[in-house]
Each structure stands twice: as structure tokens, then as C-alpha cells.
């Protein structure tokens, strides 16, 4: 996989987790030489901006190629995805550091941000192609549109508009957020998916989750308030503030 040089393993995870679970590798039968199943992201030292991602099976790879290959990122970036000849990725004991000082290798098998950990969870996830409108959920119930726009401004991915859905529960909020184009929406996911947001009167932050929306325009957002295809009920792990970048 080729991406812009500023990409790191955390941003890849935030984007790829929309299309497969890093835990799927547990069922794949792909094992390292030590007999340990791995599910990892590994950047190559000899090719800047190039990484390898181990998935559970070929179906997961095909989903990512179908939806993410050649999509734009930000102002001048692009992701290119191709099949690898390697059957599995070996563990790197001493990974080198990327330009942002994050490790070039990380395992995500146990990440609680995986969205396909069980058949029940997988059935609630409807994979959507990239779009300039994102669905956000598991945010504080008192969150305002201006506050959400401010959060994305801080991350340098300014949004053009926000629509909050009517609250289904007092435990969390959800809605849609629109960006100028698909490239900026992709960048927003890579920067802000799984971002912790403090909630009033809560001990732990909410872990905001993002995905591409099926809505074609913000005017029709209300019709899709119950049909976005992602899990909107936060689980205990979300409320406990477990953050897995």
C-alpha cells in the first residue's frame, strides 16, 4: 500500500477498520514462524510512505481494494493498494520510527475499535464507498454543531456543515458532517476517527466513531437518521475511555 509520507500506522487503522477487522486474522489460519497469529501494520523503511497490512482473508483485501484504492487524501495525497506476495508479516522487534516519531510497526489484533469482532457486530456494519459526508456517532449527548466543527478545525480538517440527529438515547449523540470533497473527508477519518471527546458529567471521554455516509446530501440527512448502517449504541469499552490508535 502506498500513501502520503505523513501517514502513520494509527491513521491507516482508522481508515481500514471501516472495511474489515484487524481481529479477522484470528480466523485466517495465517501464523508467524512462532505459531502466533498476527494482525498488523508494517511500514517499509526502504520505501517511504509504503506499508503492508495483514488482514484476515482475501475477501477483506478485496473489500479494501474495491473501496479504498486510488482514493485521494487531503490536498495532494492518494492511497494505492495492491495484493502482496507475502502470506503473513513477521513481527518486528525493534521497529524504526516514522517522521512523526510513531513506531513503524504495530499489532491491532486486540483493539477494541475493531468493528467486526463478532457476527452480531458485523451484521450492523454496512460498508459504504468514500463520500464527502461522514456519519459520526458515540459522541456526548450535549455536543453542539459548533463544538463538533471546532474539534475538526483543531485537527486542520474544516467541515462545511453538521447535522445532529434527534437523540435516541441520553447516553450519546450522532449525526452527519460534510466536508468540501472526498479527499478532505478521508483525511478527517484518518485524523479524527476514534478521537476521545470529553462529556459533561462523565468520568471517561466518549470515543467518537466515524464512517462514510450513504447520504448523498445534507438536506436528506433526516431520512437516513436510522439507516446509516453503523452501530450507534456505545458499549462499555467506549464509556470507559479505552483509546486504541
From TrEMBL:
Domain of life: Eukaryota
UniProt-recorded Gene Ontology molecular function terms: nucleic acid binding
InterPro entries documented for this protein: HNRNPL_RRM (IPR055204), Nucleotide-bd_a/b_plait_sf (IPR012677), RBD_domain_sf (IPR035979)
Heterogeneous nuclear ribonucleoprotein L RRM domain span: 124-216
UniProt-recorded name of the protein: Heterogeneous nuclear ribonucleoprotein L RRM domain-containing protein
Pfam families hit by this protein: RRM_10 (PF22976), RRM_5 (PF13893)
CDD domains referenced in this protein's UniProt entry, alphabetically: RRM4_hnRNPL_like
Amino acid at each position: 500500500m502506498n500513501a502520503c509520507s505523513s501517514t502513520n500506522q494509527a491513521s491507516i487503522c482508522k481508515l481500514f477498520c471501516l472495511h474489515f477487522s484487524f481481529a479477522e486474522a484470528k480466523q485466517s489460519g495465517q501464523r508467524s514462524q512462532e505459531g502466533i497469529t498476527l494482525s498488523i501494520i508494517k511500514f517499509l523503511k526502504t520505501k517511504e510512505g509504503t506499508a503492508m497490512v495483514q488482514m484476515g482473508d482475501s475477501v477483506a483485501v478485496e473489500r479494501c481494494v474495491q473501496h479504498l484504492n486510488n482514493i485521494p487524501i487531503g490536498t495532494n495525497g492518494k492511497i494505492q493498494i495492491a495484493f502482496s506476495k507475502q502470506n503473513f508479516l513477521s513481527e518486528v522487534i525493534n521497529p524504526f520510527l516514522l517522521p512523526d516519531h510513531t513506531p513503524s510497526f504495530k499489532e491491532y489484533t486486540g483493539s477494541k475499535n475493531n468493528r467486526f469482532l463478532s457476527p452480531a457486530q458485523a451484521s450492523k456494519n454496512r460498508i459504504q464507498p468514500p463520500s464527502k459526508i461522514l456519519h459520526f456517532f458515540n459522541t456526548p449527548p450535549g455536543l453542539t454543531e459548533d463544538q463538533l466543527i471546532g474539534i475538526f478545525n483543531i485537527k486542520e480538517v474544516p467541515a462545511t456543515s453538521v447535522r445532529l440527529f434527534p437523540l435516541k438515547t441520553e447516553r450519546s449523540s450522532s449525526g452527519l458532517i460534510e466536508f468540501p470533497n472526498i479527499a478532505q473527508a478521508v483525511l478527517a477519518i484518518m485524523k479524527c476517527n476514534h478521537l476521545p471527546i470529553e462529556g459533561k458529567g462523565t468520568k471517561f471521554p466518549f470515543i467518537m466513531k466515524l464512517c462514510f455516509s450513504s447520504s448523498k446530501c445534507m438536506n436528506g440527512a433526516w431520512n437516513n437518521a436510522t439507516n446509516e448502517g453503523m452501530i450507534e449504541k456505545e458499549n462499555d469499552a467506549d464509556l470507559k475511555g479505552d483509546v486504541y490508535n
